[in-house]
Structure formats: structure tokens, C-alpha cells
Amino acid sequence: MSLISIHCADEIATITFTNSARRNALSNAMIEEVLHAVHDFEQNKMRVLVLRAERGVKVWSAGRDVTELPQPCRDPLEYGDPLEIILRQVQECSMPVIAMLEGSVWGGACDLVLSCDIVIGCPTTSFCMTPAKIGVPYNVTGILHFLNIMGANLAKEMFFTAEPLSAERAANFGIINHLVQTEELEGFTYEMARRITRNSPLTISVIKEQVRLLSCAHPLSPPTFERIQGLRRKVCDSKDYMEGINAFLEKRDPSFKGE
Amino acid sequence: MSLISIHCADEIATITFTNSARRNALSNAMIEEVLHAVHDFEQNKMRVLVLRAERGVKVWSAGRDVTELPQPCRDPLEYGDPLEIILRQVQECSMPVIAMLEGSVWGGACDLVLSCDIVIGCPTTSFCMTPAKIGVPYNVTGILHFLNIMGANLAKEMFFTAEPLSAERAANFGIINHLVQTEELEGFTYEMARRITRNSPLTISVIKEQVRLLSCAHPLSPPTFERIQGLRRKVCDSKDYMEGINAFLEKRDPSFKGE
Amino acid sequence: MSLISIHCADEIATITFTNSARRNALSNAMIEEVLHAVHDFEQNKMRVLVLRAERGVKVWSAGRDVTELPQPCRDPLEYGDPLEIILRQVQECSMPVIAMLEGSVWGGACDLVLSCDIVIGCPTTSFCMTPAKIGVPYNVTGILHFLNIMGANLAKEMFFTAEPLSAERAANFGIINHLVQTEELEGFTYEMARRITRNSPLTISVIKEQVRLLSCAHPLSPPTFERIQGLRRKVCDSKDYMEGINAFLEKRDPSFKGE
Amino acid sequence: MSLISIHCADEIATITFTNSARRNALSNAMIEEVLHAVHDFEQNKMRVLVLRAERGVKVWSAGRDVTELPQPCRDPLEYGDPLEIILRQVQECSMPVIAMLEGSVWGGACDLVLSCDIVIGCPTTSFCMTPAKIGVPYNVTGILHFLNIMGANLAKEMFFTAEPLSAERAANFGIINHLVQTEELEGFTYEMARRITRNSPLTISVIKEQVRLLSCAHPLSPPTFERIQGLRRKVCDSKDYMEGINAFLEKRDPSFKGE
Amino acid sequence: MSLISIHCADEIATITFTNSARRNALSNAMIEEVLHAVHDFEQNKMRVLVLRAERGVKVWSAGRDVTELPQPCRDPLEYGDPLEIILRQVQECSMPVIAMLEGSVWGGACDLVLSCDIVIGCPTTSFCMTPAKIGVPYNVTGILHFLNIMGANLAKEMFFTAEPLSAERAANFGIINHLVQTEELEGFTYEMARRITRNSPLTISVIKEQVRLLSCAHPLSPPTFERIQGLRRKVCDSKDYMEGINAFLEKRDPSFKGE
Amino acid sequence: MSLISIHCADEIATITFTNSARRNALSNAMIEEVLHAVHDFEQNKMRVLVLRAERGVKVWSAGRDVTELPQPCRDPLEYGDPLEIILRQVQECSMPVIAMLEGSVWGGACDLVLSCDIVIGCPTTSFCMTPAKIGVPYNVTGILHFLNIMGANLAKEMFFTAEPLSAERAANFGIINHLVQTEELEGFTYEMARRITRNSPLTISVIKEQVRLLSCAHPLSPPTFERIQGLRRKVCDSKDYMEGINAFLEKRDPSFKGE
Ligand code: NI
Ligand code: NI
Ligand code: NI
Q: Which chain D residues touch E231 with a CB distance below 8 Å?
């Protein structure tokens, strides 16, 4: 059974998350389907991709499937993790990707949305960065996705409080390109997509790649990076990491000791 | 016949684009005049430069003169191109440069405005980034000018849709420092200029230079840059590039094939 | 006599500037007290630090104590200067630091606020960057603090005009995370602090450190930096620098010659 | 007719240039064959690749085929040029590549040898960097290959004089890993290859990739790179460039004017 | 029982490895002793540190104690590993450290020697980089230590062949500063140490720190580093890694499959 | 009276230091003459510059004139210092510069020689890096000049011991391109110069600039650089700095306390 549906028309491709039962959690299976779809769209020279959930959902995506997190003492955001792979694919594919957002966006799904090129939201949209609630050490590229869109102080508020960011604040701070009424969301998004299809796909794909490379152009010295990796490892090896995941799975509040 | 007029008073220099007939297109001839003017202002120790069009214009500047683009298979945004030279001069001169904007700003003129230090707009102001409409591969420093002012998602919307950005959105996203009524535009701008003249010109010019250098401090490895250059070259060599320029000159919609 | 008061409750530490008589100027003595307090909070595993002034103050902090600036021909923002040390401590400590702002914030105190992780303001809050008024050459890390929070054009307006930035504009541009009514300021701030204490302190401190390192990741080549240092030295050695400090101490307007 | 011969035994692959008639010039056709061969070796999990010419040749490779240089006003060392592609393939493939050198190595073939992992030479080996003799603007990655192996002063001597560097000096300066007698060249090289096949191929390929990335880790700011590109373009567009190529093809000394 | 002996005279400190029975393997216990000793020398303002083994040893140090490598699926060269800590301490301490080498130097001990400031060897000295023999993925800072001393081709020969590098070749390639007769080794080393003690310790320690920082100044973008970390992780998780360690402990040749 | 003599023939310019009485110390007056000469050679399109002393001198140059060092508490190697200016001019001028060395080279003159493109020496040549003998904090670009030519361990030996490096070791380590007999020095140097004049000056000057930029491409983050500057300032402000200069001028051994 498929966890997404796909649609192509007028050089515009659409991926719709259809696993509302599981709140469109980014499970390995669902990511696998997205990877294949995007790959095919590129082959078929689609010019824009719209990433969306079904109409009327409360949750656009609940983020990574916590039941699939690796065992303790292993980096949960490793380069080869499916979530990391899909984030890179969205950034590296030649088509612009528009995130069309109805409902709340959680954890890794926030990172996915920030990896899209353009974000259209509506009043029910909200963002919630959960790693500090679960105790997960975030990775450097993931944090960089935030810093390329918003000021460091807002990124830190999102990560440190793990509270939802409303559509209105998101639009004010430029995280959402356009905030429109829910009933106009589709019309607005596809009208923008259509305009993009009329422009030069070569120019667009090269500019997209240039923006990606400039966004990565915050290089760190090797000892700095190895130090960060060492700090992150301590978090993965901590009791709090297990407490956070267990609390999440047991649907209770975690009790963190800082150890 | 001059394409600009210049004025100096109270240590405030002003360049006014006066070629409304050609919508103040940034032709080689006009850029040449601006270069000389800025050079003289520096010699005469002017403390602020206001860059503006004539009162009541619909178009502040239509951007680069497309009839002067180089022949196919040549980089249209090369380091020695007059537009690139004027962008650097505006950034490197010791005076703060205030862009005072009435009317719409197109293509290379957007880049010029973003290269200014402070931007004052009014309700008729709008910005439209046109390279994807013409099929021009943008250069890395040009894209960086956008990323130092706005989030990557907004920059990509401007480049990918090539649709006008309204004064209101520009102000919301911080592209325009102040959005004031059209009739207050001059008063507001020159009042700010006057305040700047009272402050330490040495402090200001060094901070301006530091901001410029930090804005450039997104270094790329040599193979990354040569790869970008290779991608841009494919665009210059493409059929779409010729189609884009021809369509523009023939005032018809281009038909891009991605080849 | 102490220049600050400190308070700890529920893993939330608070530093209150209590030297309103001197407008909470960041004197060496006051910085020394803050350094000790933050150090102790870290030892005692506080989870959040709130940095604030007393209720109802007009001036949150007047910034660096100008009477303590070094003699001419010496860099006033040197690495070992107490102000620089406290900025680094706030950035490097493992607790999130929330700046809770009532009243105006001047010069080096703006830099302190931007070095905090989250900023909560109220209608009386304003920011004023004064170095160009006094003739002080700002340092590279200081300018970088601004560029990591706001667009380059807004940073330049603040530095070049040395005019106050209102709470409203600061909130629009994302410098203030939340703008709330003065009477709600405390309640709002401590509610946010409480939420943070419930999350994983290990995750938070590592993300804070990653954001810090990514914010610094705008590297410059050695000749570029030595050139900046040479430019800054010329400012320290200039007549204008002495004029600026003297004018400030004599409470008169400076007359800068650019020499 | 093939321009190379290939051989595989004991997990050691060998490519032998067999076009002595054309002094093993790196023509597009020959590069194409090498590309395919290396690709196949990787598929077949070969553990080492030896790159060599036939026994007793005077010229190991004369470098790029000058008759195939692009027309004037086009970058002759563009990212998509076959020579550039083969240099990257040699650096990026997972097997160590040993250059086994008998005879002289010219121009682009020097760059190919420096892109190999290990270099074994004999008394007839010599290196000659010819671009200044022909008037070709070298690319940044090419120059970086030299700087990662030798001091800047030696690289500049090679480029500026375009004189042969003897096997002895090359060995002294570490360009050649081992200088052995011609009759021992094969035995020595394959003995080293055999030792490598006994070690962990995973460890080796990851270290090779790390060395490659660290060798590239000399990042340049975007304006610096665009400036270099502008300087190189002036060379391609110059009269001297045409003079250099014509003189080479007419087998006469060029007469450069610096224009 | 101590694994090292220490000695101080004339502001010259000496650490002598005294665990010849275990071939001075860099066990956690021995590293712990070195860490304390260096720390004390710094407190006591020693001006030079000589790092040596006992007279007449065959093996200066066999490198890291393989029996202490972490279990599979864990990074064996993690930031907090004792070997990594001692490498950083040697680089970061304010005294110059002279490695005085008699006998062979293996694996992690090569990295320790390259982390010293000056290396004095004698004819019995040799270097052998063993990670490819055991199947260990080397870390980025470790590889960088090699690239800051020798050409990339020599570093790759050492890593890929895991064969000893003789004192003579090491001296030729500049890895050893001075190659002297074994009986002159002590006299020569301490004479150099004495000369250093006469010079300005402030100047020396700042230059040492500058060289360290410049040696690290090969920054990598975040995705590049996370990709390397992903590649290294595959090696740690591979069957070959277990095979390599087991073979070493069982004193037999490993049989690597590349899996 | 002139401190240098200049000569031009066959597109080869020569500067000869003629102030043997003062051991060709790099006084401000002498540097001024060199600056003018190089500027004129560039205007006159000279193709190579030979930098030399008079035949038979014992001292090629004694380095910076210590009597002209700035007063304490001021950076002696500031960006605008004449020595720094001449180093940059030699690196940035379009002609290759060959240092032809007879006699010993001291302190800042070593830096000048390393800033040249090619170095030819003879048996009387030697190098001595004296800052640690005088107590001067070296600057970052100066140290980088060494690291681009030699391994970090050799650079540290030169700086830490302040002992002469013989011509033979210099040649072994590649600091000297060619070591020839004293009587052949002129013939050899001018023969190389002549060969360079026959090659493309455009190609050569662009490659020279690329090597310069790649040599600088070791970028440091702003806090790293400000920390180095702070460390260097402590040295300038120390008692040892005054002791070092006084001892030098009084021709006695300094007694450094590390304070
Ligand atoms: Ni940045
Ligand atoms: Ni940036
Ligand atoms: Ni390097």
C-alpha cells in the first residue's frame, strides 16, 4: 500500500502524503517512495514539484518516525539515514520544490520544509522543532538549514523551547514565503508553479544549485567539526537520550538530568 | 547628452538617473557616467551618496540593457562587465550609498539596489528579478548579494518566478529599510543622509568595508567553483539562452525547452 | 556595593542590572560581577539565564563605560577587553541566555543582547548603535553578531545613522523574538524559561554551541584580516577618535574631519 | 584501433598508453578509452591501478592534444573538458592509482601524474609544464594539484620557465615517491601494488577521499574566484593566445607581446 | 608502576617512555601519565619538552594499544579518545616539543610525532602507518597532520602501503628535521633545546599557536564533513574492521573483502 | 645617496642592494627606493625582476632595521608597515621575481625572499629567522609565507631556534630552487630569467596571481583571528619585548622572563 500519491500535469509534479493515519510520519518506507517519485520526475523533466499533504489534515507531517530511530550510542542523523538522503535529494534535484503546507509540521519534517525552495502556508500551518524534547543531538547541516532562512535567535527559540511557531510568526520572519487563506492555498500554489514552468529551466536549476552551494559555504576547520561530533556523541551515549525516546514512546513527559 | 544628473550639497552627493525615455536602463554609457561621478564624489570627500531616479517615474531602472548583452557562448555577467564594475564600486566606495526608490526595479538594477547600503522605498516601489525569464545564468556574487539581505527561500521565489515583489513584502522581509509615503520619500531620505554626515566618516567607511568582506566570506573550494562555472557555461551555450534574448527583443514570450 | 543582583529558582538563574544611577553602563566592575555570576550558574547546572534590568528603567544599559576606553592608539575592542570577554562567555556558556528588555539599549549593550540566545522586548525597548557617533572602529566579531541576526542593510543603517531602532522595527526585522506589553514582559519571559528547563539540557547546549560555531563560520584569509586590522588602527590613531571621545565626555556634538 | 591496452591480474589493473606514434597525447579519443577502463576496473573491484606507457618510450605522454584545444575566446581548461574529467576520475576513484613513469611527461600529462596517488620514476623521467610556452591560462584546480605536492617556489619555476624538471630534482622535492633504475621500474611498482592489495580497501578508499577533500580545502571567496576567472578570460581573448597555439602548430618559437 | 619517567633541568623537561616491555604502546594508562606530566611542565614554566624513549630501544612506540580499541560500530579515533587528547595537548601546550627518535614509530605514535614541533632522528628511526593493515578509518585531523608536513603523494604511500619509511627517506622528505648518528642523538637534541630556552618564550608560544591554527585552516563545508563521517562509519561497521582487529590480535595476516 | 642600484636589459630588471655598510638592512628609506623601482619596472613592462646584493657580500640583507621598530605597545608588523608593503608588492607585481642570494639572509629579509617567486642560492647563502631572539610577535601572513614553502616542523625549527639554516639544508627542503656554485650564481640566474622572458607574460602573471591567492586560501574565523591578535598584543606589551630590542641595540644577549 502506498504512503504517498503522485500526480503530474503541465510539467508540474505533485507528491501528496497520504498516510494521515500515521500523521504522515517520515518513515523509511514513505521516504523510499518519495525518493523514487522525485527520481522519476527528474527523468521526465518535470519543471516544478509541489510537496503537500491531503486537504484538511491537522498534521502535515509528524516528522521522523521515532520508532525507527537507531539504537542508543548511534548517531540518529547520520549521512546515510533516509531522512538525510531525502533532504539532500530535495536540495539537489534540478526542479524547484514548493512546500504547500496545511496543518502542523514537526521535527524532521520542519527540516524537510526548510530544504524546499519555496514555502506556502495557511493559518493552520505551524512548525515545531522537537529534538530538545526527545533529547536528540541535531546535526550541523540540519541547523544550517535554519540559519539560512532565519536569524540565529529565532532558530534558537524554536530548538530550545520546542514550542510551535504559528503561521503568522513564520510569515513575519520570512520562513513562509506567502501566508494565504486555507481555501486559496491550492490555487495560489499552483498558480506560482505555473509561472515557474514558463521560465528557463536551465537558468533556474543552476541558480538553485548556486544557492545550495552558497548556503553550505560556512566551512569549519577539521578540529572544530570533530569536536562537534564528539559533543553530539556524548548526547547519543547519555541516559537522557534513552529517557527522551522512552518517554516519547510511552507518551509521558521526559525527566532529563543532563547526564 | 548626459544620462544622469549629479548634485552635491552639505557633503551629500546625489546621482539622479535621467534617462526615463529608456527606462533608465543600465547601459554601458550610463554606467560610465555613474562610475565617473562616484569617483569624483570620493575625491571631494562627500559623506553620503543618494542614488535615485526622477520624481514620479514608473520605472526606477529597467536593469541591464539587453541589447548590449554579449554574443552567445560568452558569460554575460563577467568580472569586467560594466554592470559588475559598478556593483563593486558602490560596495567598495567609502561613502554609504542610499538607494531612494520610486517605481519598479528590474533585473541588474535589483542587484545594484542590493549593493547599496541602505534602501528607502515608497508604495510604487517593486522589484523584479528577470534572469529566468530571459534565460541568463546568474553569477555567484550576484546571488550572494541576495542571500546577505534575505532568506534563501525568498531569494529563490524572486529568481524562479521572475514576478514583481511588492514594496510591502519587500519591507516586511527587510529588503527595504523604510517604506514611506511617496511624498515623504525625499524628505525622509535626505534627513537620514544628513544624520549620517554628522557621524565619524572613518568609523563608517571601515564598518562598511568590514560588512562587505564578511558578506563575501562564504568561500567555496576551487572544484566547487569550477563546477558552477561549467554549469553556467552550459546555459550560455544553450539554445534557450538565444531564445530568451530573442524573445525579449521581439517582445514575445519565450518558449524554453531546457536545452 | 554590588552592581547586579542575582537570583536562582527552578533551575532558572537571573541577573538583574541594578546600577540605574549609572544607567547600567557596562563598566569593568559590573562585567566582573556578571562573569562570576555566570560562572557560578554553570557550576550549579542552572538551565536558563535571564538577563534583565530593574522594572521601569528608561535605560536597560548605556553600553560600555566610555570613561574606561583605553588611551588613543590602542584598540578599544581588543580580545582581552572585559566587554569582549563577557560577550564570549554569554555565547559559550551551556545555558540559553534570554535577554529581557525594558528600556533603551546602547552601543556595547546592543552587542551583548545580540550575543544572547533569545530576546524578549516591550514597547519601551529600543536599540542604538553608537560607535559612529563616538568614532570607535568596531571589531569584526561584533559586526558579525549583527549580520547573523539581521540583513546587512539594516545593520548598516544602525551603525551609520546611530539612531535608535524602535521596538516595533526590531520585532519586524526579527531582532526581538517576541514583543509583548511591558506588564507581561516578566510573565512571558519566565514562562518561556520554564518551558526550556523541561527540555534536554544536553541537546540544547550542543545545539547552542553548533549555532555559535556556524555563526563564526565566515572565515577570512589572513591578508584580508590584517588589512582590516590596519584600517581599524588608522581610526584609533586618528584625530577624530580623540574628538569623538572628548565630545562624548564633554556632552557636546563632535565635529569629525575624517582625519 | 585502441590507443591504450588494459590488463588485470591479482586485483591489480594496468592501463598502458600505446599511442607512441602520437607520443601518447591525451586526445579526446584516448581519454575516452581511459575513462571506460577505469570505470570497469571499479566495477570489478580492482584494488590498485597502474598507469604506464610502453617500455622504452622517450615520451610518457606529450600532454593534451593541442590540435583539440577549443577556438579562441573559450576556456581551454573548462570543467567539462575531457582532460578535466579524467583528472577528477583518477582522484575520485576508490582504487589507489600509481603512475609508473618512463620518459618525459608534458603539460596536461604532468597534471594527470600529480592527480595520481603515488608516482614511481626512473632516470629517464622528466616533467615539463608548458602552458606559459603556449600562452594557455591555467585553471585553479590544476595549480592546486601542484601546490599540494611541492612548495610554491618550485611550482612557479616549473610554470614560469617551462623547462624540464629532471627525475633527480623531482625525487629530491618529493614529486616522485621513488626513483629507481629503469630496469627495476616494473618490478618495484608491481611489488608496491601487491602490498597495497593486501591492505583494507575500505580504509584506503576513505583515506584517499579524505586526502582529496583536504587538498581541495583551500576555499576562495566568490569575488576572488570571479576575478581570477576574469583574468583568465583576458588571456583566452588575447592575441598572445592565438600566437602561442599557432607557433606550436607551426613548430616555431612564439613571439609574445603581452597583449 | 609508572610507564614513563620525567626529568626537568635548565628549563628543559623530558618525558621518557619506559614501557619497552610493551613496546611503549600508547595505552590509556600511559597517555594519562603523559597528560599529567605535560600539564605540570606548563605550570612550572618549562621552556622545551623532549619526548623520547629509552636508549637503545628497537621500538620508540608501537602506537595505540590495539587491545583498547573500542568495540565495533564505534569510532576508534573519536574526539574524546585519549590518543586524540594527547595529540591536541602536544599541539596546544605553549612549550615547543621535540620528538627525539630512536627506533621504529608505529601507527598512532607517528601521529604523535607529527604533532610535535621538531623531530630529530637517527639511522634506526623508521615510521610505519598501520591503519590500512588493521582496517581502521583514519580521522580528518590525523590525515591533516601528515599533509602539513609532507606532500600528498608521500602521505598516501605511507597510508596505502603501511610499509616502514626509512630514516633516510624521512629526512629527505623533511619529516625528520635532522638525521644524526645514534650516539649523537641526545647531544644534538639537548643542544637544540638549550638554544630554544634562550629565546623569547612569549614569541615562541604565540608562533606555535599561529602555526597550529594555520595548519587547521583547511575548512570543509558541513555536508562535506558529514559525508566523510558517513564514509568512516561504514568502515567501522564493516566486517573488514573486525577481521583487521582480530587478525592483529591473533598475529596473523588479515583477509580483507572490502565489505 | 641611493641604497640600491637598478638596471634593465633585455626585459630583465635588476635591483641590487648597495648598502653593504649597513648590511643592506631593510630600512624605510631603502624599502621606499625598492617600491619605486618595482613600480617603474611594471610600467615599463619588464618581464622578470632579479633581486640581489653586490658580489661577494657576507650579508645579503640583515632584515628589518631594528632601530626603526615602533615604540612598545604597537604592532611592529602592521599592515601599513613599509616591510609589509614591500612583501605584498613583490607578491602582487605581475613580473616573476627571482631572489639571487649570496651571503646570509636575516629576519624580515627571509620573509622577503620567501615572498619572491624563485630562489637561487650558493654555498654562502644562509637563512636566520630572528624574531624569537628579539622577542617580536610574528604576524599571520608572515608565518603563512613559510608554511607555503616548507613543512611546519622546519618552519618551527627556524623560528624557535633562531639558528642559521645552511644553503645545503635549504636546498634539500626546497626553500632554494637551485643551489649553484658562487661563481655560477649570476650566469645561472640570468639564464633562467632569459628563458622566462621568452614565455607568455600574460599566462605567467595570471598563474603568479593564482598561486598567491591559493597560498592565502587558509582562512580563519573572525574570533580565531581576534584571539591571535590578542595574543600578539600581549607580546608587544610585555617586558620581554623591550628587553629583546634593548639587548639587540646594546649588542648583548637578552634575558627573557616570559613576562
Ligand atoms: Ni552565514
Ligand atoms: Ni552567511
Ligand atoms: Ni594548505
A: 206, 209
> DSSP class of residue A136?
P
DSSP E20-84: GGGTT-B-HHHHHHHHHHHHHHHHTT-SEEEEEE-TT-SEEE--B-GGGSPPTTS-TT-TTSHHH
Q: Rounded to an integer, what distance in angstroms lies between the CA atom of residue C217 and that of residue C220? A: 9
Give residue C218 CA to ligand 2 midpoint distance, Å.
7
Chain A residues near residue B258 by CB distance under 8 angstroms: 45, 201-202
| Beta carbons of A41 and A8 less than 8 angstroms apart | yes
* Rounded Cα–Cα distance for residues A24 and A31 (Å): 10
Q: Note the ipTM here.
A: 0.97
Name which of A82, A84, A117 is nearest A99 in CA terms.
A117
Q: How far is the CA of B142 from the centre of ligand 3 (A)?
A: 28
E43 burial level (CB within 10 Å; 0-12, 13-18, 19+): exposed
CATH for the B4-183 domain, from 3.40.50.10490, 3.90.226.10, 2.60.40.10, 3.40.50.1370:
3.90.226.10
Query: What is d(CA E51, CA E28) in angstroms, rounded to the nearest whole number?
Result: 17
Q: Of chain A residues 206-225, which have a CB less than 8 A from chain C?
A: 218-220, 224
Q: Is F178 helix (H, G, I), strand (E, B) or coil?
A: strand
**Domain range list for chain F:** 1-182+200-259
Report the distance separating Cα D63 and Cα D42, nearest Å: 25
Question: What does DSSP assign to residue D59?
Answer: E
- Residues of chain A in contact with residue C199, where contact means CB-CB under 8 angstroms, are 132-133, 160-162, 256
Comparing B136 with B72, which gets the higher pLDDT? Answer: B136
Give E182's DSSP letter.
Answer: G
CA of E231 vs chain F CAs: smallest distance (Å): 25
Q: Enumerate neighbours of B (3 or more CB pairs within 8 A).
A: A, C, D, F
CB contact under 8 A, B206 and C228: yes
| Chain E interface mutation, best of F140, F153, F157, F255, highest count of E Cβ atoms under 10 Å | F153
- CATH class of the F1-182+200-259 domain in this structure: alpha beta
User: For residue D1, what pLDDT is reported?
Assistant: 58
Q: What is the mean pLDDT of residues B150-176?
A: 97
pLDDT digits (tens, 9 = 90+) for B24-35: 999 999 999 999
Q: How many whole angstroms from its chain centre is CA F36?
A: 17
